[in-house]
Amino acid sequence: MGGCFSKPKPVELKIEVVLPEKERGKEELSASGKGSPRAYQGNGTARHFHTEERLPAPHPYPGAQDCVEAAICHVKDLENGQMREVELGWGKVLLVKDNGEFHALGHKCPHYGAPLVKGVLSRGRVRCPWHGACFNIGTGDLEDFPGLDSLHKFQALQLQRRTKVMAKCISPSAGHSSSTNVLIVGAGAAGLVCAETLRQEGFSDRIVLCTLDRHLPYDRPKLSKSLDAQPEQLALRPKEFFRAYGIEVLTEAQVVTVDVRNKKVVFKDGFKLEYSKLLLAPGSSPKMLSCKGKEVENVFTIRTPEDANRVVRLARGRNAVVVGAGFLGMEVAAYLTEKAHSVSVVELEETPFRRFLGERVGRALMKMFENNRVKFYMQTEVSELRAQEGKLKEVVLKSSKVVRADVCVVGIGAVPATGFLRQSSINLDSRGFIPVNKMMQTNVPGVFAAGDAVTFPLAWRNNRKVNIPHWQMAHAQGRVAAQNMLAQEAEISTVPYLWTAMFGRSLRYAGYGEGFDDVIIQGDLEELKFVAFYTKGDEVIAVASMNYDPIVSKVAEVLASGRAIRKREVELFVLHSKTGDMSWLTGKGS
Ligand SMILES: Cc1cc2nc3c(=O)[nH]c(=O)nc-3n(C[C@H](O)[C@H](O)[C@H](O)COP(=O)(O)OP(=O)(O)OC[C@H]3O[C@@H](n4cnc5c(N)ncnc54)[C@H](O)[C@@H]3O)c2cc1C
Ligand code: FES
């Protein structure tokens, strides 16, 4: 790429925007598949539906034949390592200068539409400021998750064009045989990304995905942030996508047995399917209360759109109780404050999120909830659920307090959904997780596992075996599993990235903070504008922020580069930085 030189004036940078036919095909599919942002906005959920939770609108890019040449800035206007959004009349592009070269890319993250110009440019990729997805600036390809789509890469003079396309299924047995080349148990994030990666890598044999759900793969994290959302609004891809690429999805299809010797699974209805390669991505099952009255009506866990929709219907103008002040419970409580007459939270710990985010951050968030009229019952638990005519009426606490309740949401954790593997020779650990190596291989050759149900070696924490139940992690593991099915010898090396959204504010988190022994906070907790560094010994092991973008993405990039961040560096930052300048992290300006 470069400039078109028009002397003697300063050198103008011109961009030629060409959208190739095959990219356009993809665009059409994903635009409809990402659900309608208008539908989201129109469902009356505006307040809790943080702007970043809306899916991006279909791009107003020109058609396949269009070629736009526009002078967009002067070559010297951008320094190396800088990004800028430029308006081209029909829409914006993200212009990036790196190592003296210019690149022009789509300006919005395909995940939830974050402005990438506010992200972090590092090591030839831009990391999204909201949830950490990474895009290669040379190709626009998605390199780290969440999200499924890559960025448009605009042909800008000498730049290569985008090459990633997906294969279609050419297997004659597709759709009607009792054997498949790849069987994926679980159509969540890990399963879907595995299937898509196989097609992206040119795999054209049969792929079957199966799920307990009655829906095609959907955006599960939205369930607790937008309980009103309908399944079709949550869909990650439209049914045309699965048809186009020959990815078969068996809905309401529960696998009950895996016979690894004969490479065969049995479904609940007796149907049997043979496979050559198997991915286990069954995710987890929510824990339920075991107290007296646990069988009464109107007590829910949130796993499906139906659960979420029913909760919000029952809570409207009535009393809601949430048990468990973790991410899921707190997101539900926040969402219900606008709908319910009262919202109460019951929690064993003294402070919400304490184990994950520490006491001070937990207290600041608790205050935000109290200011939004959420009532907390802390350091207690439920002893009984009382009903009237079979329907929940009261939640009785161990502290003897009785709380009125018409609906109760239980968010007290989950267990791996691996019960169906107990009779197989696939190893499970004592908690029911499937241990895998860095290539997502189980102990059985040809059987891979990914997502919430696995423990795996976390590369940048000395290969400690961990379970990380995050949306982004499930994507990354699904891809590595697919690559290894194709003998590409890929290893999982992503830095964990998590987010939550409550009352229109987002909290971002990167790293693995288990066992932190100190928290260093910069910013103002009362104002909910802060960054918290979680340290263990001399090292930063995780970071969380609110209203402090893009620091979490920046830390994630540094950790992904293999550089450790020392506690002392952070202490100096907190001591000296009044401005929130983050140049100390990268050695460059922030
Ligand atoms: C309400 C909610 C909100 C969340 N919010 C966030 C968030 O904000 N950020 C974040 O990072 N993470 C969040 N998570 C966690 C995130 O959704 C998970 O980490 C992610 O979905 C894990 O992906 P997975 O593919 O491993 O499993 P899942 O997405 O759980 O998918 C599992 C699949 O396996 C299928 N399955 C299970 N057993 C069988 C069987 N025996 N036979 C056939 N199919 C089977 C299921 O039907 C499903 O299709 C949230 C989770 C929930 C429930
Ligand atoms: S909006 Fe970019 S990763 Fe979510």
From TrEMBL:
| Family annotation (Pfam families) | Pyr_redox_2, Reductase_C, Rieske
Q: InterPro entries in the record, alphabetically?
A: FAD-oxidoreductase/Apoptosis, FAD/NAD-bd_sf, FAD/NAD-binding_dom, FAD/NAD-linked_Rdtase_dimer_sf, Reductase_C, Rieske_2Fe-2S, Rieske_2Fe-2S_sf
Question: Which keywords does UniProt give here?
Answer: 2Fe-2S, Apoptosis, Electron transport, FAD, Flavoprotein, Iron, Iron-sulfur, Metal-binding, Mitochondrion, Oxidoreductase, Transport
Q: Which GO terms describe its molecular function?
A: 2 iron, 2 sulfur cluster binding; metal ion binding; oxidoreductase activity, acting on NAD(P)H
Pinpoint the Rieske domain residues: 70-165
GO BP terms: namely: execution phase of apoptosis
Disordered: annotated span: 23-46
Matching PROSITE patterns: RIESKE (PS51296)
Give the principal location in a single coarse category: mitochondrion
Name the SUPFAM superfamilies for this protein.
Answer: FAD/NAD(P)-binding domain, FAD/NAD-linked reductases, dimerisation (C-terminal) domain, ISP domain
Query: Where does this protein have coiled-coil stretches?
Result: none
> Where is the protein situated, by its record's location annotation?
Mitochondrion
Listed GO CC annotations = mitochondrion
Q: Does the keyword rRNA-binding apply?
A: no
Q: Which family does it belong to?
A: Belongs to the FAD-dependent oxidoreductase family.
Role noted for this protein = Induces apoptosis through a caspase dependent pathway. Reduces mitochondrial membrane potential.
Query: What is the protein's given name?
Result: Apoptosis-inducing factor 3
